[in-house]
Batch of 2 targets.
Target 1
Amino acid sequence: MINLSKLPNQQRNESCKLFLRRHWLEVAKIVGLATILLILPAILASIFLSFDGDLMNNALLGPLFSLIASSYLFVILVISLNQFTDYYLDTWIVTTERIINIEQIGLFSRVISELHLNQIQDITSETHGMLATFLTYGNVYVQTAGTKQRFVFKTIDDPDEVKEKVLALVEINKRRRGDASKPMTVSDALTEPAKPDTIGT
Amino acid sequence: MEFSLWFLLIPYGLIAGLACLFFLFNIFHIARYGLQSVKTGAVLMMYTIAFLIICIISVLLVARYDWSAVITLADLFSLSL
């Protein structure tokens, strides 16, 4: 289990500032889909049975129908549990030193990546659509300099506030650790001491 | 030609077994990679309760019939819908 006070490779004085998951609307979607998938066949079956109520007592169709209904329930359960697990395990952890992106892809694939705060160059928050505006959810894009790497906090609650909080943490971190997001200039390269493995080459 | 109804239980058993396996996979993932919190405990409990409810409904649906009964081909073709 993930313990926020004991993160892997945790540095001294590093503490968790934000723990993010996707918006609750994602859970509502999963529950809504499961409800529709349960209610719709039940309505259809009741309409079908209203024409011939004796159908369930048929020697073959009764047992067959009960098995199909039971199997269908199991399938709906598995789909719903898989979707919820995917939602629950997709998380973003922002500490005073780094951002950890944990992405669960299906049941058997999991990607964990991290980014140091002083490498961040740009943070963008976006909210698209009427529902997203009313329920205040959206995406936050975290961009590092010169690389393709881009973290996306997908459909999180209050993206503007998260952006502000992460920006504040980035500023504090850059003051302590130096800015690693800017490309190195010629004067920086000249003033930087030579690395041991480059001496004599 | 005749066949016993319990043959129909084989595919059902396979589906129920797979559902059980996926339920256990989900429980494992949440317990292994979830956040150490009360919420995770609640999620695990919710999963277990949902699975038990579906199992009980399924057993109630299936237990209504005599699965040792034998069906003949003539029965199949004389079905009136």
Target 2
Amino acid sequence: MANRHFSWIAVALFGSALALTTACGSSDNNPSPSNPTGGSGGTAGSGTGGTGGMSTGGTGGMATGGTGGTAGTGGGNCTGTDFPNCYSCAPKTNDQYLNACKSGCQAFDNSTLSELKNGQLPPLP
Amino acid sequence: MGLSTNKMSRLWVACAAASGSMLAAHAVHAANCTSLPNPIYVTGSSAVQPFLAGLGTVLAAGSNPITIVYKKQGSCTGGDAIVNDTKMTGTATYWTASSSVSGETCDLPTAGLPADVGASDVFWTSCAGSGPLPSNVGDFFGPVEVMTFVVPKASSHQSISAEAAYLTFGLGQAGKTPWVDETQLFVRNAQSGTQSEIGTAIKVPPSKFKGIDSGGSSGVLTSVSSATNVDKAIGILSTGETDDARDKIKELAYQHYGQSCGFWPDSSPTSFDKMNVRDGHYPIWGPLHMFAYVDKNGKATNSNALLLIDYVSGAKELQGANLVDVTIDAHLIPQCAMQVTRTSEIGALASYQPAAPCGCYFDKKTTGQTSCQACTNDSDCSTNHCRHGYCEAN
């Protein structure tokens, strides 16, 4: 009886996990690009519908304000190699278009900007 | 002070003679704008001049010549001319069939006259204190204009991020970027479409830009190209100016907020294909806006405005010229060559499939090559769409 109970619990847990993965992973059908090393105001990562930011393991990501967060690898298999965290699937959202994999780019190193504190833009005078 | 009375007298005579000559020359050479053949009055954006010049020379050469009379002021002044019915005054530029881009000069009536079309690089709502566009004014889109950050040709800089641009133009010296010298930041003013569009992109209001107002796009070009401290100088220009001046200045790759790498408008700093704009990698662009009075159905009520809008949109064919060529020659992008679109200033990018695409021809014209099949008529194409000599998808 105990064993049977345990089996049911195991099945239920597995089913829930599967459902959760499927639901959360829906954004991975259209995973977001990756990393905004500088998305403003935290727009980089709500992860809803794959419109921005990351969705690692279906958990969604969140850039934390300022000039944008460190969103993840875009979830799924849409991370390419042309430049860090570029988006290799067909772009559908603004961030995906901007980060669609393509050679011939020239990155600017934001770490050289001393007035960018923790990724936050200082207010204008 | 040190001059004798006699010398002073001679100086006055010389000055008077010189002034008289100048006035006489002006009277001889400056035409009356209203006496030109079928004038269409346009005012606003300075970035649009190369395009209007191309269009103006073609229209002037037609069997029924049309003259574009253009007052270069600034994008928001263009919107203001229609929304607030502000008259065009002073001198204006027009083009004959043989004019260069700089055109000829004519005099507007002293009392001024109303513009048929207000030309702008930006949406009306991007102009300071503008409010919504009135219901009797329409905003008609033209080809895509691209705005860039430029540095002297010899500068060691290759790219700029939105964050770096914010700190540079928003904070100036306090931003502590590679461009800390505010006397070397060559900008425009709050009326400029170039400054408004770039400001929207980097989140610095156009009225808050640090730097020197260079008095127009040609002033920015001159100041940047002649800067002696090449690594400190930077300016803002549209590709209409930069593409013809690459021997003196260079565009920087731009890395937008949320973007992991920077891109030039073109595939490379030396190409002219605007590929990164067309496919969504370079975000600082917007359509040319033509403001005109409209009826309740959104149709332009001014016949001159309607004519110009139809020519620019391609609804009316140009005699003896191809609108796509005119657009490309002005270093703009015809809507038919775009793969992305947007509906607001620097708004979200979305996929765009033009009704009559011209991407193949655009590639061929700007790079000398295209992967598309050449054709002479629709039946040559499996897609059944032969456009400008190449098979297009639709």
